[in-house]
Design brief:
Elements: H1 8-19, H2 27-40, H3 56-69, E1 73-77, H4 83-94, E2 101-106, E3 120-125, H5 129-134, E4 142-145, H6 151-158, E5 166-169, H7 177-185, E6 194-197, H8 202-207, E7 217-221
Parallel strand pairs: 1-2, 1-4, 2-3, 4-5
Antiparallel strand pairs: 5-7, 6-7
Length: 231
């Protein structure tokens, strides 16, 4: 018999509706995160390389992903002023699970993120992704890639993830690095059963009250998907 086919386009709509469904109830958390992101912008004056950062809607997507899936061990490539780091850490704190940790690196800058929450933040300033990955061990639940990964990174990353690790890609649009990273990551056997989730649509984000768009995509392990009669 013919199976039921669910495309990435259709699944993307359902996925983000599920992940962001509590936005109205979490308005106080959203306000707190927005205030923190504004304060982090002041760190730009300390940047040796001042570049772009994620939007408020992208930060909320990261927060909601972390709060929904409840990862305990996270790798981030691309700290900059720490907006994505903060969003992930706050989401990890707010799901009230066990204490987690985030390992994050930035090749160009040495900016200390003023995080004081429960989640342990380990920064690798002025450090390449390859060098950071060499120094890590164990299996990580979620990886957020806001930097281009190369062949050596993939070799190191392979020992730090398994078939259940969620991969999150920033700058997933056009010919940006998120799209290039997807192409490279799809060569990894451990990610063969990961399903691509496109960024949340701008129309949906506007319905939730955001004026910015998100470029955050997700490679979701099929093991993280369950069918439910209610929801």
């Amino acid at each position: 018999m013919k199976p039921f086919n669910l495309s990435s386009r259709l699944f993307t709509t359902v996925f983000w509706q599920g992940i962001l469904q509590n936005t109205d109830q979490w308005r106080s958390e959203l306000a707190a995160l927005s205030d923190a992101l504004k304060r982090l912008d002041d760190l730009r004056t300390a940047a040796d390389y001042n570049t772009g950062s994620i939007s408020n809607s992208a930060a909320w997507c990261l927060y909601s992903l972390a709060r929904y899936f409840q990862p305990l061990h996270v790798i981030e490539i691309g700290t900059f002023i720490g907006k994505s780091t903060w969003a992930l850490a706050q989401g990890m704190d707010d799901h009230q699970g066990g204490p987690g940790d985030i390992f994050t690196c930035d090749l160009s800058n040495n900016i200390k993120v003023p995080w004081t929450g429960k989640t342990k933040l380990v920064q690798f300033p002025k450090t390449s992704s390859t060098e950071m990955l060499k120094r890590l061990s164990g299996i990580h639940d979620l990886c957020f890639l806001d930097g281009r990964v190369g062949d050596e990174d993939l070799k190191r990353l392979d020992s730090l993830i398994d078939q259940n690790t969620i991969i999150v890609l920033d700058d997933f649009e056009g010919m940006e690095k998120g799209v290039a990273n997807l192409k490279n990551l799809k060569t990894m056997p451990k990610l063969a059963n990961h399903f691509l989730i496109y960024p949340a649509s701008e129309n949906y984000l506007q319905e939730l009250g955001f004026t910015s768009h998100s470029t955050v995509a997700v490679m979701l392990p099929l093991s993280r998907v369950a069918l439910s009669n209610q929801g």
